[in-house]
Amino acid sequence: xxxxxxxxxxxxxxxxxxxxxxxxxxxxxxxxxxxxxxxxxxxxxxxxxxxxxxxxxxxxxxxxxxxxxxxxxxxxxxxxxxxxxxxxxxxxxxxxxxxxxxxxxxxxxxxxxxxxxxxxxxxxxxxxxxxxxxxxxxxxxxxxxxxxxxxxxxxxxxxxxxxxxxxxxxxxxxxxxxxxxxxxxxxxxxxxxxxxxxxxxxxxxxxxxxxxxxxxxxxxxxxxxxxxxxxxxxxxxxxxx
Length: 241
Known about the structure:
Alpha-Beta Plaits, alpha+beta, 7 helices, 10-stranded antiparallel sheet, 34% strand, two-stranded antiparallel ribbon
């Protein structure tokens, strides 16, 4: 397993992430990253999405420090949406929260919002192509054995960077860790051009090898499937050397 990791890292250093870019905060700032889990009252998610489209969505693209909000509606529950939000720093997040659009969104969704969870996380790897539109989004929650956490993080960083750099249909790969005593709980979000691109990635030798060498590092994992979405990649915050 360690031999494979060394070889993999060596190849990555030679080839480099030619088409992959990391999301980062400017010097002196710290990324603000969290997951937002919204549950609408039964049958009301489409209404909530419409409210978002005419309120907060009008402002966010013009907020310099609001890097990206990537999410999708759960396939197992059409009233549940999970969103990975990335901001330049805490100040940028507060600017977003204080915008007219966000305030209107908060107010208008009140009658149809069943539950809201904000989960602060630490970024492990935030990698994406510079542009593209994805229609397939999947997420995963992995509980890593605490003593194997560093090893798992190194391997997932390598694989996610490789996949975005080398696989045409892989548009974005993001992994985050919960804070405090749950830092071994890793949440991921993967954006693919379409379902075909996802299937191609899952059947690739690199991914199958990644699964093989990491499965013994995990206590458990769960994949969250989502309804087809339309994700336009944000160009903000990309570390382009």
